[in-house]
Amino acid sequence: MSMPSVEVVKNHEHIKKTEEKKQNSFFAKFKQIYLGPIIAFVVFIAIWQAVPLLLGLKHYILPKPTDVVSAAIEDWHLLWPAVQITVVESVVGFLVSAVVGILVSILLATSKILERSIYPYAIILQTIPVVAVAPIVVIWFGAGYNSIVVISFLIGFFPVISNTLMGLNSVDKNMDELFTLYNASKWQRMWKLRLPAALPYMMAGLKISCTLSIVGAIVGEYIAGIGGGKGGLGYSITVAAIQVKTSYLFACGIAAAILGIGFYLLVSLFANLMLRSWHESAMKVDK
Amino acid sequence: MATVQKDVVSFQHVSKVFNGETIALSDFNLSIDEGEFLSFLGPSGCGKSTALRLVAGLGNATQGTVKVFNEPPKQIVQNTNDIAFVFQDANLLPWRTVLDNVLLPLELRGGNKKEQKKEAIRVLEMVGLKEHVKAYPRQLSGGMKMRVSIARALAAKPKMLLMDEPFGALDEITRQTLQLELLDIWKKEDMTILFVTHNVFEAVFLSTRIAVMSARPGRLSSTIDVELPFPRQLSIRTNQKFTDYVDVASDSLENSSEQRELV
Ligand SMILES: Nc1ncnc2c1ncn2[C@@H]1O[C@H](COP(=O)(O)OP(=O)(O)O)[C@@H](O)[C@H]1O
Ligand SMILES: [Mg+2]
């Protein structure tokens, strides 16, 4: 009979503890997670700022962080449109690789024969460096936007296929038998079992593909140029390199990095939303 | 009560060999009548699951014939909702809520959505999960998952329930509760149940008949009619007759394993 009272006492202690925790938790978490990286960042910038000064390096060899920032501000009217163009190209490239990748995976997964005969070529195609075939793409699709999107698609497409296909083929044997016992049709099995089961894999593929699609867009701009209108980040980078505007070159590189991180975080957020209802299995794949 | 249909399941000289070398079942003969609660009891690896899966049409007999309602099992599975299977791990789809998991068999068969939902709620009520319809499997305990799994099996109103060690992974208390509930459901829904277990107490407590099996090769070594009255309460376990049946079943199990050692 004394059991309940013990529990009550425990509960009180528990509540007290959680209250204390709440006050401390913000600082504790801040210290644990953010403080280290912030210090490292500040130290890194400080060294970067100091080295060119100490060694007397010219700004076109190694610009100081302050040079980079002022270059970015000065040429903002060039940088900002370039960023926008690259964003559009890589987002379109990514969306096309996501849609085509998922559709092709579903098609391949519906027939073992199809998968066995076509998938090996998909792997071989993947090993061909895109940079090597990019000029062909330019011949086919013309200089500029179209070619850049195609190159971005070519780079981002394969991770979607390989991951989705793996997911579609990874269905638990018992679940598969459950569907057999209810005499499910091929398409019922696809929609109600294989695709949902593949979702975590698919999302992992999209996360890889989104950063690659930015790489694809920038590489595409190196090769396919502008073709009328203004150029994106890749084009700006080539021009800045020719003119030895090293500070602006750094600013472009940093902008590309921020773009990549931002895009990745956005797609991750989307992935988490999609997998909200069963993140258990989502985590299995992520690790 | 309507007349009991004989031989709703029949194994005739059934053997099952895997990969041309593992003899899972050898000359297995057994007939089961409508309304029975029959347990397959035996050590692990003696072919209990194999036998049950043959009844569900998951795999073919290497020799002999298995018939369910006088037809090949695959036919029954394709054309009717008469057989439902409960797997050892609850085998729920993690991306579906409790309600949607139970709705699955109804969805796959097609029909009126509203009626499907009514039926799903009815069976969820029967297993005491009406409050948890919106939960996801990961939010449930092992016992609750198994309840959902049973509800899903019942949703399509099967005439026969096949259960492969459904309570094997549960703690003793949950297992006892579920055993009682299962007996209730069996009476209410008027089904034939084929139940696989390696637990002698469970087999005696639940069954009207026990098929004791021996391993290597998997054979039927004896059948035991359990003539304990229904409804059965947990207190029956201390009853002399109950313990007698447990002794008989245990002896039968031991004999069959001795036979194996002599071979
Ligand atoms: N799919 C399979 N492939 C090969 N061997 C199997 C397969 N399924 C079962 N077996 C073998 O058949 C025998 C009986 O297995 P099973 O029916 O699962 O036994 P139980 O359910 O009584 O533990 C075991 O030796 C097992 O290894
Ligand atoms: Mg088994």
TrEMBL record, chain A:
Q: What is the predominant subcellular site recorded for this chain?
A: membrane
Please give the family membership noted in the entry. Belongs to the binding-protein-dependent transport system permease family.
Bilayer-spanning residue ranges: 33-55, 85-109, 121-142, 148-168, 198-219, 248-275
Lineage, please?
Bacteria, Bacillati, Bacillota, Bacilli, Bacillales
What Pfam families would the database entry show?
BPD_transp_1
Name used for this protein in its record: ABC transporter permease
Q: What PANTHER family does the entry give?
A: ABC TRANSPORTER PERMEASE PROTEIN, ALKANE SULFONATE ABC TRANSPORTER-RELATED, MEMBRANE SUBUNIT
Please state every residue range assigned to the domain named ABC transmembrane type-1: 83-271
Automatic annotation (TrEMBL), chain B:
Any GO MF annotation of the entry: ATP binding
Q: Which PROSITE patterns match?
A: ABC_TRANSPORTER_1 (PS00211), ABC_TRANSPORTER_2 (PS50893)
Q: Which Pfam families match?
A: ABC_tran
Domain named ABC transporter: which ranges?
9-240
Asked if the keyword ATP-binding belongs to this entry, the reply reads yes
Q: Which CDD domains match?
A: ABC_NrtD_SsuB_transporters
Tell me which positions the record assigns to the signal sequence.
none
In terms of InterPro entries, this protein maps to: AAA+_ATPase, ABC_transporter-like_ATP-bd, ABC_transporter-like_CS, ABC_transporter_ATP-bind, P-loop_NTPase
Q: Which residues form a coiled coil?
A: none
Q: Which domain of life is it from?
A: Bacteria
Q: Which UniProt keywords apply?
A: ATP-binding, Nucleotide-binding, Translocase, Transport
From the Swiss-Prot or TrEMBL record, give the protein name: ABC transporter ATP-binding protein
Q: Which organism is it from?
A: Aquibacillus rhizosphaerae
